[in-house]
Structure formats: C-alpha cells, structure tokens
Amino acid sequence: MVVLGLSAGVVTALLGIVLVVTLMVKNVNWFLYEAKLGVKKRSLLPPGDLGLPFVGNMWSFLSAYKSPNPETFINSFYSRYGKTGMYKSLMFGSPGIIVTTPELSRKILTDDENFKLGWPRSTIELVGEKSFIAMGDEDHKRLRRLTSASINGLEPLSMYLAFMDELMKNELEKWSKMGQIELLTELRRLTFKIIIHIFLGASSTSVMEALEQEYTKLNYGMRALRIDLPGFAFHKAFKARKNLVSIFQNVVNERRKEKLENPNKIAKDMLDQLIDAEDENGRKLGDDEVIDIMIMYLNAGHESSGHTTMWATLILQQHPQYFQKAKQEQEEIVKRRPPNQKGMTMKEYRQMDFLSKAIDETMRYITFSLMTFREAKRDVKLNGFLIPKGWKVFVWYRAIHQDPQVYPNPRIFDPSRFDSPRKAGEFLPFGLGTRLCPGNELAKLEITVFLHHFLLNYKLEHTNPNAPIMFLPHTRPVDNCLARVVRLTPYSN
User: Residue 419: which CATH number?
Assistant: First the structure.
C-alpha cells in the first residue's frame, strides 16, 4: 500500500509538473512580449493571439500559403475575433499587429512621424543593410530623388520605351519558334534584361545569366524563416546574396577605374549616377551602399513585372471578352499611327485605357506583394487600439484586395472595378506614401508594352491550365506556366 501511495504521489507530482510546464510553454510569448507592457496597455491591444511558443503565427501562415486557399490564414482571425481590422500576432520573429482595412492601411503607410519601415531581419540581411528597406528617412528621400527621377520621369520612360518595344517584339517572335516554354521563366529573363539595361547599361550575357540565377535563389528566401542551415531557403538565399555582392563588386571596381581614367565621363546609367552621387557635404556613396541599392532595385525591378505580365497574359486569355476588348483597343491605336511611325509612343501608352484597367485588376487579383512591414516609433493609438512602441505592423495587402466589402466577388476578374479611381488604401500593388515603389511607372509600362504586342499578334496555348498554384514567395503556377506562344497573322497598320 505504501508503494502504491508513493506511486500515486509521484504520478500526481509529475502531472502537476507537466501542467505547470504546459502553462509556461503556452504563455511563453505572453511573458516575452505582453507582460512587460503593463495591465493598462495590454487591455488596449487588438484581439488576436501570439501563436505557438517562439514560432508565433508563422506555422499557420506558412501552412495556409502552402495550401490551395491562402485566405484561410486571415479568415481564421476574422472567424475568431470578428472583422476589427487589427489583430495582434507574432510574425517573422516579432510581435506585431496585422492590419486588414484600407483606411487603417492608409493611415499607417502615410504616417512617417509614428511609423518607420519594419522589415524582418532576414529580409534586411538578404537585400542589404544599406538598401532602401533599411535606410533612414533622410537618406531614403535623397537617394530616392536621385534614382526615381531616372526611372519614372517622362524623358527616361520615353527612352526606355523604344528599347522595350524592340526587345519585346523580338522576344515574342523568338518564343513563337521555340515550341513549349516556361512563360514565367522567359518573362523574368526579359524583364531582367530591361532592368539590367537601365541600371548597368550594356552587360555581357554571361554576367546577366549569373545575376539572374542568383536573384532567383535570393527571392525564394525573402519570406522564409531565418534559419541559416543547409537545406533551408534562407541559407540558399544568403549564399546567393554573397555571390551577387561579389559580382557587383567587380562591376563597381571596373566603373571606378573608368572614372579615374576619364573624370569627365558622362553618367550613362544608374550605376554611374550612384557612383557620382554626393550629399550636401560632398560625401559620396561607398561600395557597400552602391551594391546594396543595386541588389534591391534589380530584384524588385524584374520579379514583379515578370510575374504580373505572365498573369495578365494568362488571365486575359481565360476571359475572351476582355481579351477581345483589349485587342480591339490596341488595333484602334495602331490604325491611327502615321505611316512613318515606328513603334509605340508614350502618347499611345496613355490612350490604352482598358488595358490599363485590366493590368490594375490583374495586380489586385494576384497581389504580387502580399504584405508590407512597418514599426511603431512610439505608442500609437489607432481605431481604439494600441500599437506598442517597437511592435511591427503587418499591412496585409492581400486581405484588402480580397475583401468582398471593398471588392464585391473578389475572386471574379473584372477590370470595370477601375472605371472610377479607388479610394486611398484600397489598391496597393506598389504601396503608398513616401515609400511607394519608386519603379511603379516603369513596371506598368513594361507590362503594357508586352501586352500591346502580344494582343496584336499572338495567342497562348496553355499546356497545364489546371496546374496547382504556389503562393510563396509569390503567386505562380508550379510549372511556371508551361505554354506555347503561337504567332497569328501579323496585324498591319
């Protein structure tokens, strides 16, 4: 009986220990992040949960976005806590607030006094400590003025248009003779050629191919957990970054050498301009700053354009009524061209009203960048809730673009949604505020020029129309859109 009594006592003690450990583990995130706020501040936090110990909500996020229905992640917050628009969470290693409404997104993205960029440490390490995503407001404003004027201004866009027009005509013709291709892969290479032309000028094919391969690896690590071990996406991406830095360092060394030999050399591309740039005190950018800015721009400048162009082409083909309407618009524009005109003009680009709406609807429907990151500089009260100082804000673009209260029947593709301007915060393919994507006009122009030529002279024979879709790091078919580009009877003006 004594042995049995002792055994029962031991079992009870063990159960008690297990219960205590379970409670401690279950509440570890609360102890780490919420307890220090104090009772009053905790009472003002939005509804939500900090998920699993240390991992937070990342497991449910990754599970949802690796499933056929990524909306289950945000919908789980809606179903548990109602549509409050703000939810506490633990994402990418940091406590934060998920924001899912246009009005709140607009307030956060345009309030530089209370919010700064808050990208995850992993993303900063991959893109660069000296890139825009880690740069302070003043440095960002100065370098943004320098770089965006060379990308989005009327004069440079007009210059790039002629290059893009000829390149895209040639590429489409080449693809039509190649048989089955991965359309997304070819489009990413095409948009990469354009961004290389803008930022690095003429570059050898071997250097371009090496850069493109490393950027593919880099991009796969952008939304991955920061696990720097062999076999993990972040580890592969970080190795790719090291290779990119080495490649760019060689290019920068060569440019600086050319500058020394010819001090009066006129800047011919963005790299020259970055090397020549100096602040009011005469300080110039160091190699690490130039390289990080280049890595950032070249990654952003071809990924989004390539993916969006692929989806716009595919979706228009899936909706014959919209395909025909866009095609007819292009034919009317070509008919009005003077006989001596060669190629597309900026004036014609601005006349492509329906095609512009179709591209905007594609960007909403797909949502290339599903979220962005901010961080509270101080305690901020918003919508009756508190965002504590130092907490991240995850502005969930996809939730807004897929919200039936903002876009009725959001899974239906309908360009007429853009017959009237959308309210600020409702349409966020390029972000909002002072950190708006500096290459937004260039990206839209690239997509439009490609579709102009495709609509006039080609069609797509999609090999696997029911191919599964991947949502990380960006939305794409698992087969990268296997298809044949078929040449039609050439349209003549």
Answer: 1.10.630.10
CA dihedral sign of residues 141, 145, 151, 157? positive
> How many beta carbons lie within 10 A of that of residue 373, not counting itself?
20
Decide if 314 contacts 366 (C-beta within 8 A).
no
3-state secondary structure of 197: helix
CA neighbor of 209 nearest in space, from 225, 223, 188? 188
Whole-structure pTM value: 0.88
| pLDDT per residue as tens digits for the range 210-227 | 787 788 888 777 767 788
Question: Any binding-site annotation on 481?
Answer: no
Helix (H, G, I), strand (E, B) or coil at 193: helix
Query: What is the CA angle 123-116-62, rounded to 5?
Result: 40
CB neighbours of 338 closer than 8 A, spacing ≥ 6? none
* Total count of domains within the chain: 1
**Is the separation of the CB atoms in 142 and 428 below 8 Å?**
no
- DSSP-assigned beta bridge partners for residue 461: 484
Residue 139 lies in a domain: yes
In a domain, 28, yes or no: no
Q: What is the Cα–Cα distance from 368 to 377, expressed in whole angstroms?
A: 28
Closest C-alpha to 485, from 89, 279, 176: 176
In a domain, 475, yes or no: yes
Sort strands 372-376 and 392-395 into parallel, antiparallel or unpaired. Answer: antiparallel
- pLDDT (tens digit per residue) in 9-68: 665 665 666 555 544 556 788 889 999 999 999 999 999 999 988 889 999 999 999 999
Q: Checking DSSP bridges between strand 380-382 and strand 385-387, what pairing results, if any? A: antiparallel
Cis peptide leading into residue 68 (ω within 30°): no
Question: What is the pLDDT confidence band of residue 2, given thresholds at 50, 70 and 90?
Answer: very low
Q: Is residue 31 part of a domain?
A: no
Show the tokens assigned to 91.
Answer: 């994402």
103 to each of 108, 233, 400, 486, how far by Cα in Å? 9, 35, 10, 44
| Alpha-carbon 66 to chain mean position | 18
Structural domain including 427 reads 38-487
